[in-house]
Structure formats: C-alpha cells, structure tokens
Design a protein that fits this description.
- The chain is mainly α and 172 residues long.
- 81% of the residues lie in helices and 0% in strands.
- It is elongated, with a radius of gyration of 21 Å.
- The termini are close together.
Amino acid sequence: MFKLIGFFCILAGCIGWGISKIAEEQSRIRHLRELIRIIKRMQDEISYGKHTLPEICLILSEYCDTLYRPYFRQVYELINQSGGAELDRVWEEQMCRCLQEAPLTREEKDILIELPQNLGLQEEKLQAQNIGQSMDFLNRKCRQAEDAYENRAKMLLSVSVLAGVFLTILLL
C-alpha cells in the first residue's frame, strides 16, 4: 500500500516538474509578446507622436502589462528628478530590475535594456527604424518560441513521466 502511494507521489512530483517547465515556456512567450507591444508603442510614439523617452515612459506606465508599469513610472520619475541627465543609467537599472525574474534569454533582455542607445540619433525616422530592428529580432524569437512550444511541451511532459517511472523503479 505504501509503495503504491510512494509511486503516485513520485510520479505526481515529476509530472508537476514537467508542467512547471511548460508554464515557464508559456511565460517566456507572453513576455516576448509584451516586449514586442512595448517596443511597437515606443516606435509609434517616436514616429507619430514625436515624444521624448521620458514622455514615452509615462505613456507606457499606463499602457503596459501590470508587471512593467511600475518600472516605467519609476524611470519617468527618476529622469525628471535628474533633469534627464542620467537617462541611460536610470533606464538600464530599472529595466535590469524589471526583467530580472523574466524567463527570457540574456540576448532578449538586452534588447529592452539597451534600447536608449538606439535613440541617440537626431532624426525620429532613424530612431524608429533602429527600434524596428529590435522589434524584428524579438518577433523572430517569439515565432521560434511559439513554433517550438508544442513539441517542447510534449517532450517535457513525456520526459517527466518517464523520469517519474524510472525513479519509482529505482527507489521502490
């Protein structure tokens, strides 16, 4: 009786691990989509609204997903306090904190963290074009993640079940 209960506990634990890895992959795709939305909004605000980065941060603090809102608000407030002199530093610190727990690769996080470097040009059209390149990169990454998601989910679930069975045989 106890062996049967042990078998189900081990199997449930391994399946739970597999499901948590699948949820991580879903979260990554969700974050990538949100980053694409943020960058697209920034590009639109630069091209059509002719807004500066601090103004865009204020707009994003109302527009973004709740995870990102406080960080954009903080960027806006800190830039206004410093008079805009420390834009790159403030942006980098806040975005590093914002994306610290996000299940994204370092390369994907760097796109948002290094975004103000793309805005060093005078003409809005060139700024929007540089931001568009970042958005294209994230779009590719998101499509790749979405394409691989279904196969990866099946594989993770299968591996977690097999690991549970193997551990059960090994331990019991």
